[in-house]
Amino acid sequence: MRLCADDMSCSTETVEEALNTHETSKKILAQQGFNLRKWNSNNKVFLSKIKEKEDKSPSLTSKGSRISEDDQSYSQYIVGNPSEGGSSKVLGVNWNSIQDTFYLDLMHIITFAYSLAPTKRSVLRISAKIFDPLGCFCVFTINLKILFQQLCVDKLNWDIELQGQHRKKYDALLAELPSFQNLQIPRCFFQQDKVVEVVEVHGFSDASERAYAAVVYLRVQYESGEVEVKFVASKSKVAPIKKQSIPRLELLGACLLAKLVNNV
Q1: Element (H, E) at 38
Q2: Distances 175 to 47, 213, 222, 246 between C-alpha atoms, Å
Q3: What is the spatial distance between Cα 219 and Cα 198, in angstroms, rounded to a whole number?
Q4: What is the DSSP letter of 180?
Q5: Helix (H, G, I), strand (E, B), or coil: what is residue 142?
Q6: pTM recorded for the entire structure
Q7: How high is the pLDDT of residue 5?
Q8: For the chain, domain boundaries
Q9: pLDDT mean over 248-252
Q10: 3-state class (DSSP) for residue 233
Q11: Nearest-angstrom CA–CA distance, 13 and 18
Q12: End-to-end CA distance of the chain
């Protein structure tokens, strides 16, 4: 079960544990005059129970005075609000609490990208706009970085409109953006109500003349014999401007993978 409280993120096995976390956290912050709110979860039972608590019990500071900030209307708006479609952010990452998946909201990025002139500066601005700590979209962002590196190698001016092959590559990347709009990454690695027997971490790395990358998957085998493979994280880097041999780039990819696996 997943909990998300403002900038605190944690998980529990049962609703009872989650309610205990909710109550304990609120008490600790209330001692310093803070009223902890903005709770979200992938469990409807938990959301309904804390909504009842927020609606019925007054919010008190450590001195016993009622906290009037937004009062109960705020909790009614933020706790399990169906109008938001279960969408919220966990440390900057979009999370759909109903489907329990992570996703990247690309509509504002697409609109932003098409509003820019096709220049070297725009390539950098679009790349910086995409926040993807898990590396779910590095298959796209690495191509932006490769294009930017090539523009730097060719010593193009920051605000000169791209021409020729550079312009074709830029247009192709923008046209590719909408295809990632519906990509959903499951948050949970394990199925509920199933006994996990074996968990394995599998990592892969690869390299080319332009870039090298690493990706980590989780292979889960249940007691029933069922096997699932889940994406965990990936990382990619542009190859150095100074030309490297493929074997050396493969080693750089292996080093990147070792660090990623250790982090996971």
Answers
A1: none
A2: 40, 23, 41, 30
A3: 8
A4: G
A5: helix
A6: 0.78
A7: 53
A8: 2-99, 107-180, 188-263
A9: 97
A10: strand
A11: 8
A12: 20
The backbone torsions φ and ψ at residue 238, rounded to the nearest 5 degrees and listed phi first, read -75, 140
State how far the Cα of 247 lies from the Cα of 138, in Å rounded to an integer: 22
Based on its alpha-carbon atoms, the radius of gyration of the chain, rounded to whole angstroms, reads 23
CA distance 161 to 22: 54
Q: What is the total residue count of the chain? A: 264
The pLDDT, as a whole number, for residue 159 is 94
Which residues, in sequence order, are bridge partners of residue 204? 215
| Spatial separation of the C-alpha atoms in residues 239 and 247, rounded to whole Å | 12
**Lookup result for tokens 């109008």:** 83
* Cα–Cα distance measured from residue 119 to residue 148, given in angstroms and rounded to the nearest whole number: 10
Instruction: Give, in order, the Cα–Cα distances in Å from 4 to each of 35, 43, 56, 212.
Output: 15, 11, 22, 34
Closest of 13, 8, 11 to residue 25, by C-alpha: 8
Residue 27, CA distances (Å) to 6, 40, 142 in order = 16, 18, 45
Q: What is the pLDDT of residues 56-91, one digit of tens each?
A: 665 544 444 444 444 444 444 445 444 456 788 877
Please report the pLDDT score of residue 191 as a whole number: 87
C-alpha separations of 187 from 2, 41, 42, 59, 232 in Å:
9, 12, 10, 32, 9
Cβ count near 239 (within 10 Å)? 20
33 dihedral zone (left: phi>0; alpha: psi -120 to 50; beta): left
Find residue 9's DSSP bridge partners.
4
The residue type of 30 is: A
Per-residue pLDDT of 89-139, as tens digits, reads 877 788 888 888 888 888 888 999 999 999 999 999 999 998 888 998 898
Report angle CA 105, 110, 114 to the nearest 5 degrees. 165
